């Protein structure tokens, strides 16, 4: 009997952008509107989650999201996955517009 050895897939390069995370920190909490927030990666960093999938959560909501699990936390707060995806897309658009204004229309 012939056995085959499978080769592991190369790990995907994770998108990181500290400027984007700073932008997220400027937004109010997605759940309670507290102005002091931390970026919450909706797909974990360990699983290759991009910084562009981060949403603003205050410390209390952020801790609760990690304790409950992201999916259950947002479901409990009445935020379904489609709406969360929409919020993530809108944050990215807002960030890109702000970046263009800051760079006089030039994308660096």
Strand order of the largest sheet: 1-2
How many E strands?
A: 2
Q: Give the domain tally.
A: 1
Any idea what the shape is? globular
Low-confidence stretches: none
What helical percentage do the residues reach?
Answer: 40-55%
- Measured between the Cα atoms of the first and last residue, the distance is 56 Å
Structural class: mainly alpha
Compute the average pLDDT: 88
Annotation field: number of helices: 4
The H-and-E topology, N to C, reads as HEEHHH
Beta-strand residue percentage: 5-15%
Question: Describe the biggest sheet?
Answer: 2 strands, antiparallel
Radius of gyration: 17 Å
Describe the structure.
The chain is mainly alpha-helical. α2 crosses α3. The protein starts with 17 loop residues before the first helix and ends in a 6-residue tail after the last helix. The mean pLDDT is 88.
Architecture blueprint of SSEs:
Blueprint: H1 18-25, E1 37-41, E2 54-58, H2 59-68, H3 70-76, H4 81-102
Antiparallel strand pairs: 1-2
Helix pairs in contact: 2-3
